[in-house]
Every structure is written in structure tokens, then in C-alpha cells.
């Protein structure tokens, strides 16, 4: 089983265990990333050891190649000196180092290829961890949003119960009832404690509604130039009943009362009133 196969198995088992015990997703994600970084550190140590082995093999290979060259040089020197026996021994040693160099070269080349693969896998693992760190913030944000939506849904579900709204409406009705009672109590207090004499005089000063109509009619005629604007009446002085009797004004006062009562014409039906106005308009048009 390769180094990264072991690491992948360990990481998966740890993640599955954390997910099964997950209570706080943010903490679990942070813990998972920490575990990944721990496994990455172990993988770095394993890759470093593989690189060291590869370099050791390369050093041994270089040494064997150098030994083979040296023994070949010695064999050539022995042949020059006429020492064939020494030349044979040197060639035998040169052959041995050459064979060992060939074996070491094959082993070193295989180790070198494997080391490059481990380096590539290590870079991929590091990139995945960095990507997981970037995704962690996104996942945490999604998890918080999901929690907020769940809380809102739970709140809305709780508010769907009409009992709360009914209680609110009952309380509002009660407050309004108290307000109405307070206003009524104030009106009763004012009616009982008010100056009834002053109220009566205010009612007399207001006079009948027909007086207002008469005043408006006179004002309209004056505005149209049909009559002169009435002069403002001087305020009348209150007189005692004895003085009035001495003057003999009783008949005048009675006439005034009769005029006031006679001016109050009965209300004309609206249809008849409109008909009369139509006749007046036709007469004006004919005269015009």
C-alpha cells in the first residue's frame, strides 16, 4: 500500500468519525483541516525520506561508475608496463563495479520516477488542503445561513398559532374599552359640574338656524348691489322691564317676535325648488 493510499485511508476515517460526531460544523471543519495538515506533514516526511533514498542510490551509482573507471585506468596502466596479470585483475574489478553500477542505475531510475510521482502527489494534496481551507469559509457561511433560515422558520411556525394574535386582539379591545370609559366619565363629570346658565346663554346667542340664512341673503343682495349694505347695529343696552313698560314698547317687541317667527319659511321640496330655479333661468334667457 502506497504512502498516499495510507494517508487517504486515514484522512477518510478521521473525517467520517468527525462528521458522525459533528455538533458544531465550523469546529468540525477546522478540525478536519488540522487533521489534513497533520497528514500532509507526515506525507512530507515520507517524501523527504524517499528523496533521501533516491539521492543515496545516485551517490552509490556515481561511486560505482567512478570505481569502474578507476580500475579501467589501472588496467591500461598495467598493460603499458607489461603486467598482464595485474591488468587482468584490474579488468575483473572494473567488471564487478560496472555490473553493480548497472543494477544501481536501474534501481535509482525507478526510485527517481517514484520520487517525482510522490512530489506531484504531495503538491496535489497541498493544493486540495488549500482549496478546503478556502471552501471552509463558504461552507461556514452556508451553515450559518441555514441556521438563520431554520430559526426564522421556527419563529414563523410559532406565530402561525392564532392564540397569540387572539390574545393581542383581546388586549387591544380591553385598552380601547378603558379609553372609551375614561372619555365617557370625563363627559359626565363636565356635564354635572359645568355652568348650565352659561350654556343656556350661549345657545340663545347662537339663535335659530334661519337667522343665519337671513343674514346670508342680505349679504348676497348687498354684494349684488340690489340693496345697500346694512349698517352695523349699535350694541343694545339692557333695560329693565320697568323702563320698557314706561316707554310703551311692548307692541314693538311683539311685532319683532312675530316678524322673526314669520320669516322662518317652511322647507321647500328639492324637486320643486329646482323647478323654480329653472323657470328663473329661462326667464333671464328670454329677457336677454
Question: How is the secondary structure organized here?
Answer:
Layout: H1 3-20, H2 25-80, H3 84-159, H4 162-193, H5 196-206, H6 209-224, H7 241-247, H8 250-263, H9 270-287
Helix pairs in contact: 1-2, 2-3
Description:
The chain is an all-alpha fold and 288 residues long. The chain has a domain at 3-128. The protein has helices at residues 3-20, 25-80, 84-159, 162-193, 196-206, 209-224, 241-247, 250-263, 270-287. Residues 238-265 have low confidence and may be disordered.
Characteristics:
86% helix, 288 residues, mainly alpha
What's the overall average pLDDT, rounded?
Answer: 75
For the sheet with most strands, the description reads: none
Number of helices: 9
Q: Write down the overall geometry.
A: rod-shaped
What is the strand content? under 5%
What is the radius of gyration? 61 Å
Low-confidence stretches: 238-265
What does this entry show, briefly?
The chain has 288 residues and is an all-alpha fold.
Amino acid at each position: 500500500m502506497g504512502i498516499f493510499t495510507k494517508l487517504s485511508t486515514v484522512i477518510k476515517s478521521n473525517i467520517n468519525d468527525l462528521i458522525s460526531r459533528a455538533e458544531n460544523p465550523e469546529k468540525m471543519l477546522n478540525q478536519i483541516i488540522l487533521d489534513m495538515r497533520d497528514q500532509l506533514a507526515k506525507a512530507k516526511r515520507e517524501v523527504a525520506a524517499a528523496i533521501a533514498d533516491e539521492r543515496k542510490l545516485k551517490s552509490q551509482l556515481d561511486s560505482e561508475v567512478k570505481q569502474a573507471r578507476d580500475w579501467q585506468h589501472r588496467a591500461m596502466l598495467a598493460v603499458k608496463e607489461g603486467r598482464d596479470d595485474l591488468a587482468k585483475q584490474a579488468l575483473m574489478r572494473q567488471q564487478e563495479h560496472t555490473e553493480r553500477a548497472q543494477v544501481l542505475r536501474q534501481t535509482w531510475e525507478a526510485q527517481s520516477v517514484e520520487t517525482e510521482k510522490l512530489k506531484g502527489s504531495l503538491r496535489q494534496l497541498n493544493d486540495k488542503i488549500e482549496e478546503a481551507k478556502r471552501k471552509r469559509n463558504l461552507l461556514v457561511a452556508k451553515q450559518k445561513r441555514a441556521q438563520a433560515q431554520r430559526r426564522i422558520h421556527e419563529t414563523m411556525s410559532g406565530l402561525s398559532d392564532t392564540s397569540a394574535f387572539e390574545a393581542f386582539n383581546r388586549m387591544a379591545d380591553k385598552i380601547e374599552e378603558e379609553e372609551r370609559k375614561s372619555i365617557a366619565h370625563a363627559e359626565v363629570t363636565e356635564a354635572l359640574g359645568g355652568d348650565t346658565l352659561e350654556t343656556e346663554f350661549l345657545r340663545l346667542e347662537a339663535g335659530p338656524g334661519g337667522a343665519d340664512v337671513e343674514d346670508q341673503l342680505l349679504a348676497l343682495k348687498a354684494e349684488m348691489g340690489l340693496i345697500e349694505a346694512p349698517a352695523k347695529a349699535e350694541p343694545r343696552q339692557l333695560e329693565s322691564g320697568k323702563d320698557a313698560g314706561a316707554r310703551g314698547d311692548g307692541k314693538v317687541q311683539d311685532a319683532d317676535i312675530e316678524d322673526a317667527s314669520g320669516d322662518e319659511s317652511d322647507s321647500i321640496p328639492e324637486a320643486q325648488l329646482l323647478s323654480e330655479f329653472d323657470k328663473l333661468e329661462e326667464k333671464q334667457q328670454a329677457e336677454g
